[in-house]
Amino acid sequence: MASLVGEGAYDAYKIVLDEAIKYGMKATMVKEMVYQATDYLGFGRALPFIEITNDILTQNKISLPLEDMATTTKDDRLEKGVKAQVAVFGDHMKEAYKQGKINEYLAANCFGDYYTRKGLDLTLRELMTFCFLMAQGGCEPQLIAHAKGNMRMGNDKDYLMRVIIQCLPYIGYPRALNAISCVEKASA
C-alpha cells in the first residue's frame, strides 16, 4: 500500500486497502502509514489518501477517530527524533540536525513526530519509507540512504529485492530497476 500511496494511485489504493481491511489488516497500521506519507509526499499529496483511508475504514464499520499514537511533545520531539535517526542510520546522525534548518526539521518532524509514534515499529516505518521513495521516482539519493537504513534495521538486501519485486506491478519496471540499482549501491 505504501508504494501505491507513493505513486499517487488513488483507485488502486482503494481496492487494495478495502481488501486488506477485510482480511484483517489493523486500521492503526494503515492510518500510521498514510500519516507518515506526509513527510515523504507532502501534505497536498498525502491528504487524499488520508481521506480515502477514512472512507474505507468507515465503510468497513471501523470507528474513527482511532486512538492517538503520538509519543512526543513540542519540547522533546527533536531529542526523540534524533534518537530514532541514530537507531535507523547510525551514530553519525547524532549531530546531523545541526547542519541546517531543514536537517533540524527532518529530525524533529519526520523522525520525532512520525517515526516515534506507536502503532508501527521503526523497522516497518523504514520499509514503508523505502516504498514511498521507490514509487515516487526521482528520489534516488534518499532511496539509497533509506535502503542503508533498512539494512541496518534488519531488512537486508535480499528482503529489499523481494519487496521491489512485490511492488513491481504497482510501480512499473523503470522505478523497480532504479530501486534495484539503489539497493545495489547501498549494499556495496
Task: Describe the structure in your own words.
By secondary structure, the protein is an all-alpha fold. It has 2 domains: 2-65 and 118-187, AhpD-like, CATH 1.20.1290; 77-115, no CATH class. The protein contains 10 helices and no strands.
Per DSSP, what share of the residues sits in E-state strands of 2 or more residues? under 5%
User: What integer value in Å does the Rg equal?
Assistant: 16 Å
Please tell me what the overall shape is: globular
What's the CATH first level of the largest domain?
Mainly Alpha
Mean pLDDT: 97
Total tally of structural domains: 2
Helix content: over 70%
Structural class: mainly alpha
Number of helices: 10
> What oligomeric arrangement do these chains adopt?
single chain
Q: Largest sheet at a glance?
A: none
Q: Got a strand count?
A: 0
CATH architecture annotation of the largest domain: Up-down Bundle
Spell out the CATH superfamily of the largest domain: AhpD-like
H/E topology pattern: HHHHHHHHHH
State the separation between the terminal residues, measured CA to CA: 28 Å
Point out poorly predicted stretches.
Answer: none
Enter the CATH topology name of the largest domain: AhpD-like
